[in-house]
Amino acid sequence: METKIYTCPICGKEHEELNAYAQCILACEAKRKKEEAELKKAQLELEQAMRKKSLDEAGEHYRKLLTEYIKDYGTYEVKRTAEEIPVAFGKLFDFFNW
């Protein structure tokens, strides 16, 4: 009697037993999902690093502009809305650790 060979559609390994074939498919699928999750995480970390770099560069540019403005004119008035004032004071108090 001829034995049937089962070939995993993911990795291509051949199995004589149906149980081994099914376990191989499950293992390959789990491995694929893990690799996909790692790739997605790496892409997210790269995007986060790129966006952080962009924000840091923009902040540095703003800091330079503000420094030049204050150097030329002595002061810079920040206009705040009523909603922003508690946030600003909260950050100030956090700065002094109150």
Mean pLDDT: 85
- Shape, please? rod-shaped
Question: Rounded to an integer, what's the Rg over CA atoms?
Answer: 30 Å
Spatially, the strands of the biggest sheet line up as: 1-2
Number of helices: 2
According to DSSP, the number of beta strands is 2
Strand content: under 5%
Tally of individual domains? 1
Helix content: 55-70%
What is the ordering of alpha helices and beta strands? EEHH
Enumerate the spans where pLDDT stays under 50 for 5 or more consecutive residues: none
**Distance N to C terminus:** 84 Å
Task: Describe the structure concisely for a colleague.
By secondary structure, this protein is mainly alpha-helical. The chain is built from two helices and two strands.
